[in-house]
Structure prediction request, 536 residues.
Amino acid sequence: MGSEQIQTNTDRAKIRATAESMASRQREISISEFFSKNRHLLGFDNPQKALLTAIKEAVDNSLDACEEAGILPTLKVEIRQLAEDRFRIAVEDNGPGIVKAQIPKIFGKLLYGSKFHTLKQARGQQGIGISAAGMYGLLTTGKSIAITSRIGREKPAHYYEIQIDTRKNTPQIITDKVVEWEVPHGTRVEIELIGTYKKGRHSVDDYIRQTAIANPHCEIFYTPPDSNEPQHLQRGSDSLPPEPVEIKPHPYGVELGVLIRMMKETPARQLSAALKRDFSRVSGRVAAEICKAADLKPNANPHTIVVHEAERLYKAINSVKIMSPATSCLSPIREEQILLGLQKEIQADFFTAITRSPTVYRGNPFQVEVGLAYGGKLPGEELIDLLRFANRVPLQYQQSGCAITKAALGIDWRSYGISQSKGALPTGPMVLFVHIASAWVPFTSESKEAVAPYPEIMRELRLALQECGRKLAMHIRAHRRAVDEEKKKSYIEKYIPHIGIALREILGLSARAEKDVVSTLKVVLERSRSKDTIDD
Prediction:
């Protein structure tokens, strides 16, 4: 090896980092700092989607708050265009409002919320959405998120302007004051952001329409940027959804690491008591069976259980037959409400809906609902309109990767009288509404746009779609029979005068008698039509 080569290697060695220098560069990354650099994970990956996502997160929070307080929701959604790609959005609700001390944390801190640790159906779950929308607005325009909230007619209205310190994931209060606000109770959120407004699919307009369909109990006043007058989407029902009840985790849905943590943190002093206290559907008998199968004493201290004992406990839990979790944590839309929502927003001839019985995946209860609108003024030469929902929230993006789409593609719609090309959604005048309600929806990403295709979920989707398909097939066959019968009767009606002439010539009838025969035949035909109408 030459002297020049030795010198080069020496230089490289000088440049390389040492363990100490690498250690000096290490630092903790806050969750908000991470998402500020990876905002596409939260649905802010392009301007059009960012505008929609920000509105969606605010609307979700408003609907959840109103329903939890037992208030029929009335929402005002406004979009004002400030420049070609700059918008100011506002979402206002008539909910219970937010306590003053909680406002900065809710809107200025990621992963802060009341629903993450509760097992019951809710639109929001992670405590990321609305604070992430405010962070996106701050990153793209430098403007703070503005919040006005009031918790009662006799209480003051508080106005905040808040920013997120992304390095610390903490709220920075820019403005905090009491303001005059005529609203007796509720919350208004305003965000200025860079976005793109378009009409059609994946638009805010389409999202608002779908929200009105899935939430017929909600009244919405929506003002798009190209209008000064709000569109009024009226309430279709005065009935609030049934309130979901929080349940404890089911043993089948708990993984080994979580089980170990639960045993360490439980206040119970005996293993059998911990199993009964911290899990749903675990009775004294079931707890004893689990301990026996795990070869552990029921009175053992759960805090002292070591890893290999926890592994035996985990295997024992999954070997013992345990009743499915309670489904009171779910709040399905229900068939009659789905029909109200579809009929309110869609002009069609035929409507049907089905709500499946609750079932379970990984210990989590879920329920599948399908609605269908067919005919009327719906376009007949295009692919059907597939509306996907999870916990009453429209899913606008990532359609191809969603369990709902995969299930719809897997149905042979031709057997139900609908045209369908191989590997594609069917073609025809139809809107297909599919909803999954769950205490924990298995989304494929943090942006919550597609549902993971768990086998249990796929099975329920397929059965619900097939049941709706059979109802549709009955309607299509009945309609075709009616059309065929009408054609036959029109032929008869066309030839009735000729029959009268033939009878007059054969039987030698007078002109008056011929007229009476024709009149009688027409009366019989009309009676036949009336009978068919009553039968239909």
